Amino acid sequence: MTHRIFNFNAGPATLPLEVLQRIQEELLDYKGTGMSVMEISHRSAEFEEINDHAIALVRELLGLDDSYHILFLGGGASMQFAMIPLNFLTSDKTAAYVDTGAWSSKAIAEAQKVGKVHLAGSSKDTNYDRIPEKIDVPDDAAYLHLTSNNTIHGTQWQKFPDVGNIPMICDMSSDIASRQREFKKFDLIYAGAQKNLGAAGATLVIISQAMADKCIEGNLTMLDYRTHIKKKSLFNTPPVFSIYVVKLVLEWIKKQGGLQAIEKINRAKKERIYQLMDSHPDFYKGTVRPDSRSWMNITMRLPNEQLEQKFIAAAKAADMGGLKGHRSVGGVRVSLYNAMSMEGVEKLAQFMEDFKKAN
Ligand SMILES: *Cc1c(COP(=O)(O)O)cnc(C)c1O
To answer: Which is the catalytic residue, given 171, 175, 187, 224?
Structure first.
């Protein structure tokens, strides 16, 4: 038997076992081609089918109509930090950003290299322990940029703000497809595949036609969204293998019952861990304000660093990995992406109870 652990890594992250097994089955001979999916042409009928199906599944699962284009681009979510201002931040406008953590800050730093940035809200002064309750967006902002889930700090927007006609853009890298959301509120959504959607390489970009019409003229070809829209992400060789894995993961989500069913499971998973923390608040100390708690990344501190190290090591010895907090914040982080089963969460919760008793 292959040895598998419960993998609580923040990203790249756990994948559904049946998806990995399907990859394994198809690896040497993809659908009778006698080639691996890594070896086929990105212009072949086989890949076209994978790409079209992945696009259709994103549309179906997120409830988006044809006014949205669905792309799979390279460069990670980090490339989007650059592409967004390069396409939409004209010299006569300001881009509004909410700073809710390390990833937002990186997005802001890129936009500042391109043009004027207005800080519409921030929780930096309290170590990013919450989603700011108030934001202010200039009437003429080119767009408002949010980060829906803050992977490192463990916060998540529970309700998105209303900002009238200003286009909204969201980095959903670590909570895309994890619950039902108002996706249609946004003109552009992006997410690296390696947390909730598959293997690293592809970045999902969802962009409305209205937003595509706003792209600045004269951009370099590869950095212009319209290049990729025109060619269905096939202007150059896309991350073929990663898109294939995304397609399999989306099929798996659909089989679970879509986002409604996934949301129900994810709600139960995070409640199990938060309730446990709340019953031992002096031992498992949450680092964020309860109203901003993330469903995907639960961050906590133990009474001291030595205990944290002991916790992480003992969990690893019991086949539960990836629980170390991000190096910039320390502590313990439990990532509960879609592919983490309730069984894994139960096992961790029991471990946490036992560890508390023994220490
Ligand atoms: C992981 C992550 C990123 C960075 O993704 P890359 O694909 O490595 O560029 C950006 N934003 C958020 C919210 C993330 O969780």
So the answer is: 171
Is position 103 annotated as part of the catalytic site? yes
CA of 145 to the centre of ligand 1 (A): 14
Is the pLDDT at 1 greater than 90? The verdict is no
| Annotated catalytic residue 129 | no
Query: What separation in angstroms does the CA of 103 have from each of 145, 174, 345?
Result: 12, 11, 26
Domain co-membership, 192 together with 300: no
Whole-prediction pTM: 0.98
pLDDT digits (tens, 9 = 90+) for 148-192: 999 999 999 999 999 999 999 999 999 999 999 999 999 999 999
Angle of the 240-256 helix axis to the 17-26 helix axis, nearest 10: 130
245, part of any domain: yes
Same domain, yes or no, for 229 and 266?
no
What is the extent of the structural domain holding 67? Answer: 18-255
* Ligand 1 nearest-atom number relative to CA 79: 9
Q: Report how many domains make up the chain.
A: 2
Catalytic residue among 99, 157, 175, 195: 195
Enumerate long-range contacts of 131-139, CB under 8 Å, 24 or more apart.
Answer: 131/100, 131/155, 131/156, 131/157, 131/158, 131/291, 131/292, 132/98, 132/100, 135/98, 135/161, 135/163, 137/96, 137/163, 137/166, 138/94, 138/96, 139/166
